[in-house]
């Protein structure tokens, strides 16, 4: 990889953005990032941090000057005001990518899809979401498809997990910062579900960008990740903790239902319940055809690294 390539990452302190940044740095890229407080402790010194806000178009445009790639891995904090902020934020990234002839990378999800597309999701399956957030995700992808003067890359994934990602279903199951005493599982324990280990996602994005000139204008890929059921996930957690009797408990959907009008995060989680009622996996054959193999950390290693990063292991 040419070491003069530069990427701007919005959301570089989050789970997805930080892993994409790490993978690009390993390949000699120059990595910039936009952060509200560039003096905050713990920021990676290898990254060129620019102070600003992804919700301000001028800040994004200034930070993006001269970049080859812009990674849009940022969301409004705390799931708040998605309907008001998500699309304007993406428009800021689109404008900056357009001004610099840069490729825009959007880490995607399965929220775009309704149950009619289950159980195996392919890149071109119809997108008929059931939820407000799913409709916003569809609108985001439509923005990229309609921006005929901007190259884009979307990598759709299952539920994220990883040592630096604390806002996802795995974190709701394991409770970061506490010794793991049980797993709160949101679905039927025998149903397989798609999980995306974020260091593997970051590596996948970096490998695709290594062949950026070969990608079509609107490139879409699916990342299969780990297809495991609740029993398999529990077994991995038991081995990681050394606790052979660690229980798998049912997620309290009744509590999410009662508290949803008052707690934004629980309201958002409740909307996603349909994703846990049926088997769910992503068809990665197109990705494998491109890369030869999908980056894949063994499940046991991925679970243990995540729990250690959460501070859940003694």
From TrEMBL:
<dbReference type="InterPro" id="IPR001509">
    <property type="entry name" value="Epimerase_deHydtase"/>
</dbReference>
<feature type="domain" description="NAD-dependent epimerase/dehydratase">
    <location>
        <begin position="7"/>
        <end position="209"/>
    </location>
</feature>
<dbReference type="InterPro" id="IPR036291">
    <property type="entry name" value="NAD(P)-bd_dom_sf"/>
</dbReference>
<dbReference type="InterPro" id="IPR051783">
    <property type="entry name" value="NAD(P)-dependent_oxidoreduct"/>
</dbReference>
<dbReference type="Pfam" id="PF01370">
    <property type="entry name" value="Epimerase"/>
</dbReference>
<protein>
    <submittedName>
        <fullName>NAD(P)H-binding protein</fullName>
    </submittedName>
</protein>
